[in-house]
Amino acid sequence: MEIETQKMFINGEWVYAASGKTKDVINPATGEVFARVTRGDREDARRAIKAAREAFDEGSWSDGPATDRAALLIKFADEMEARVDEIARIESMNNGKTVTEASYDVYDSAACLRYYAGICTKPSGQTYNVPSPDVHAMTIREPIGVVGMIVAWNFPISLAMWKLAPALAAGNTIILKPASATPLSAIKLFEIMEHVGFPKGVVNLVLGGGSDVGDELAKNTDVDKIAFTGSIEAGQSVMRAAATNIKGICLELGGKSPIVVFDDADFENAVDYAAFGMFYNQGEVCSASSRIIIQDTIYDKFVKALVKVTKQIKLGNGLDEGVTMGPLVTKEHMEKVLAYIEKGKEEGAKVLVGGGRATEGELAKGYFVQPTIFGDCTPDMTIVQEEIFGPVLCLQKFHTEKEAIELANGTTYGLAAGVFSKDIGKALRVVKKIRAGITWVNEFGPVYNEAPWGGYKQSGIGRELGTYGFDEFTEIKQVNVLLKPEPTGWFGPVD
Questions:
Q1: What percent of the chain is modeled with pLDDT above 70?
Q2: What are phi and psi of 138, to 5 degrees?
Q3: Is 286 noted as a catalytic residue in this protein?
Q4: 380, 381, 386, 392: CA torsion to nearest 10
Q5: Kind plus residue range of the DSSP H or E element containing 138
Q6: CA distance 221 to 32
Q7: Active site residue 250
């Protein structure tokens, strides 16, 4: 059966890449090609940028009533929820995650749209009592202009929406480049946007690679801002490219997030969240709890319970009922994760469960990695320092609170962290000392559209979500009005 090539969306039309190139899309659960998409390059990116620039400069979207933008975002959210089963199924087949997880992503993305529809009409400035009594000084917020968006493959819908929703709410025009491996759900989102009536040129979708499409978005002077989610290495490339024309950037990069478990924690709760924080979405999560730092007095008991929970994880095709962990996104990524597992063994970490590729029965066809836990991990180990981005968990032990904080801060990352203790004073004291942008106490993982998301250190620049996420897509303009116009006389009288 011939597979139809799916198109990208530029200036209100579905189009093929100018080069005519295509890319096969593989189901990671089966290793089989199940879709095909057009593959764009710089020429297609420039077409999209031109369309977005013209749409912004024309002004009907950015200068029109915010209530109109809000109404369109709500229609978008309603239509997404009406098609949740279809979108989630496509996402599961493309990304590998379970259909339950994919459904949650769709609902949460719809909620994100509704949140920013509410924010649409509420950007606020300030007024100032300046030394000149006859001057009215104030600030206003305006849209930045054309925004290029580059998103990762682990949460294709959610990560796109964290950028799309606030940028559109603020009145910007956009070009989205989804990850090359996971373009299908983005295509569905743009089908919905076309259906609900987004104006021509306001929303554009370009499919292609980061080295050409992504680089063009970052370097092109008609793009005013780049919003990026991905690895540190890719983020550095975007940052260098954007520096050529000093455009704004928001980077949400990697993590090596710790959970600190004190011996006075609610034991079952801590074990449950340690497993959830690591193995949700196959561990392909920037904020995954990939380091569990456990007080020595409960270490052995905690490890035993955590291993037992981990052995209950059911690997399989994300579309199948009862499956709680799907495959990794691509063969190349699976091999990268397996190489890290071998590195951990070489460096002396002890495999407590898992430790390799899952090849039983139908799993042999896909890119499945066993949920893996390493014990006896030391701070110098590669698997402790580097982001693996797969279902590989490192366990460390501590004796004192000071030692726990040092271990928690012992990497170049600073995205997220969790602390488990019934002593809330102690938990908050430790949270204050941990260098991370998102923290939880006695839980780990929930993301709220209302609260800012972003990291310290090499985990990124800027914030997404909440009012901070809206502000990222606006410029602040100072406005000064002289209420009683009269000459300054600085250079003498004016005849």
A1: 100
A2: -155, 170
A3: yes
A4: -140
A5: strand 135-143
A6: 40
A7: no
Q: How many CB atoms lie within 10 A of CB 260?
A: 27
Whole-number Å distance between alpha carbons of 52 and 216? 14
Its domain, for residue 225, covers 5-253+455-479
Q: How far apart are CA 445 and CA 415, in angstroms?
A: 12
Verify that 235 and 349 share a domain, yes or no. no
Q: How far is CA 492 from CA 134, 488, 495, in A?
A: 21, 9, 10
Q: Residue 339 and residue 356: Cα distance in Å, rounded? A: 9
Residue 29 Cα to chain centre, angstroms = 23
User: Any idea what the CATH number is for the domain that residue 178 is in?
Assistant: 3.40.605.10
Stretch 342-360: mean pLDDT, rounded? 98
Cα dihedral: 197, 200, 204, 205 (round 10)? 60
Within a domain: 150: yes
What is the separation, in whole angstroms, between the first and last Cα of the chain?
84
Bridge partners, 10 (sequence order): 13
- 91, 101, 216, 252: the catalytic one is 252
Options 286, 377, 387, 472, the catalytic residue: 286
Q: Give residue 153's identity as a one-letter amino acid code.
A: W
Whether pLDDT at 115 is above 70:
yes
* pLDDT at residue number 175: 98
- pLDDT value for 123: 79
**Nearest residue to 148 (alpha-carbon basis) of 73, 48, 252:** 48
